[in-house]
Amino acid sequence: MEMTHDLNKLQEEIDRRELCNSMAPFPIYDTEIINDLKIREEMISRKQNFNNVPVTYCTTCLSLKVKDVVVDHKKVNCCMDCGNTPTAETHIEEWQDLYKERYGEEFLVLPKQEE
Ligand SMILES: [Zn+2]
């Protein structure tokens, strides 16, 4: 959990510098550097949130190839693989579990680590 640690430290540092700047009659800390820190912070938190991104999947075949289509002037989610419309939303990790349960294998094949 080193990344979480880094993120917390980064947030503290940004808060501290912004607080100092807001209390001083002129910015003590370079605002460009603070912006750089914010960009770094966002990159780290984006990485962390990767697994929290909800995905829409087809409840029939578990495909992630779900697209919006218009049927009778209504927008519905439609599976591009099997053409069915019942879909659900879940987090990528949960979906991977569902996929594994159904098909007996991981969808994302991660490279094996060298020993
Ligand atoms: Zn499907």
Provide the low-confidence segments as ranges: none
| Overall spatial form | elongated
Within the largest sheet, what's the order of strands?
Answer: 1-4
How many β-strands, per DSSP?
4
Instruction: State mean pLDDT (0 to 100 scale).
Output: 85
Structural class: alpha+beta
In short:
With 115 residues, the protein is of the alpha+beta class. Helix content is 46%, strand content 19%. It has helices spanning 2-23, 31-49, 92-103; strands spanning 54-58, 66-71, 74-79, 87-91.
Structure description:
This protein is of the alpha+beta class. It folds into 2 domains: 2-50; 55-103, no CATH class. The chain is 46% helix and 19% strand. It is built from 3 helices and 4 strands; from the N terminus they run ααββββα. The protein has helices spanning 2-23, 31-49, 92-103; strands at residues 54-58, 66-71, 74-79, 87-91. It has a two-stranded antiparallel sheet with strand order 1-4. A hairpin with a 2-residue loop joins β2 and β3. It is elongated and about 65 Å long. The mean pLDDT is 85. Zinc ion binds next to loops.
